[in-house]
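The protein record passed on below.

***
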Amino acid sequence: MSKTRKTKATRVQPVLNLHAAGADIGAREIYVALPADATDQSVRRFDTFTEDLKKLVAWLVEHGITTLAMEATSVYWIPLAELLEEAKIEVCLVNPRHVKNVPGRKTDVADCQWLQYLHSVGLLRAAFRPAAHVRGVRALWRHRDALVRHSAWHIQHMHKALDQMNLQIHHVIADLTGKSGTDIVEAILAGQREPSALAALGDKRLKASKATLRAALTGDYREEHLFCLRQAYEGYGFVVRQIGEVDKQIAGLLAALDPAPAKPEPAAPAQPAEGKTKAKPRSGGANRHQPAYDVRGELLRHLGVDLTTIPGINVTTAQTLWAELGGDLGGFKSGKHFASWLSLCPDNRVSGGKLLSAHTKPSANRAARALRLAAQGLHHAKNELGEFYRRMRGKLGGAAALVATAHKLARIVYAVLTTKHPYRPQLHAEAEQRRLVRNIKHLRSKAETFGFQLTPLQQAS
């Protein structure tokens, strides 16, 4: 009996891009894979020094590579991506989760070859990246956001030092970094200990009485806690000065950018949404870290449309959206795709015809976080989106209502930026009217099912 030998079938790979490469990015070394027939040595290792990265790019250009796929590994990919863009090589930045679901590929060489293969057959989706001029502003705006968080830490340290000395002034004054709080803290650090003298520094607009202020400023002063208070106060002032320097840098970058193309038809001048007022710069409160430059004017010049006309979106939220997205959302096919990218829609998991899960995907997207904060601010808003949030909260609960309202805001932002038409609340009113007609039709159908007839109440004459 003769034995037949099993032969391994050759897999036909439908290569779509003959000039695609893949790179495995690390902190100290990079492995790059070319198509197997491009050179005898299709995989090479490079160090992450600048000269080595330039040699890497030159090697890719020599072999006619037009696009390279890499994983978004921390910030290690950024220097190489910038050099590749200068060399006119397309960068396909992919989510590591999209390429790590195949077992057995745990070496750097195998990783870069796997990326090259997936990219050559068109199985990788590039992550959204705004234009280069927007990324410069984005880096500064993210740095500014980190500085704002650092300032909050210093304020918390000031509160802790005051608590340890049993000084309750931060429980009496709403904002310790306002004028009254700042004057009192500076007087304490200057050596003033008399409660009456410290209470006299409070502004006359404070709701607390002088007696309450004197009681709150009577404490047990200890040198170690005063030292911590001084360092926290000086750290807060330093961070505030840094935020001002970042604002100047951002204003310079925005002023150097070209304005948006003029509209074919002049639109009516946009006004802030109902209930919004122009924020006045002040030392403390909710507008403590309001940008020092004209955010609304600059964004209107670069976007061609005013995002602050949308309920819930203020100038800070609009600046965050522009810094994260830019003015061109052509990379998204529709508002649904844009909302999905933001992880503001259900991530349906269906198996065997059953819905296993519909939770939203976890995401650290800064634009999505800004829209969630904007949606949260609509809780008591007396406008159409505030009504939508409250209706969804009664129907779905607080958490789901927040996501639903952020989803609606994302769809509105997408429509405004792609059409370059300002927000029109009339469209929402028309949609609400259609919803009312549908509800009435449904109620009439229900009434007929149970043998009743639904009739409207007669208007009193």
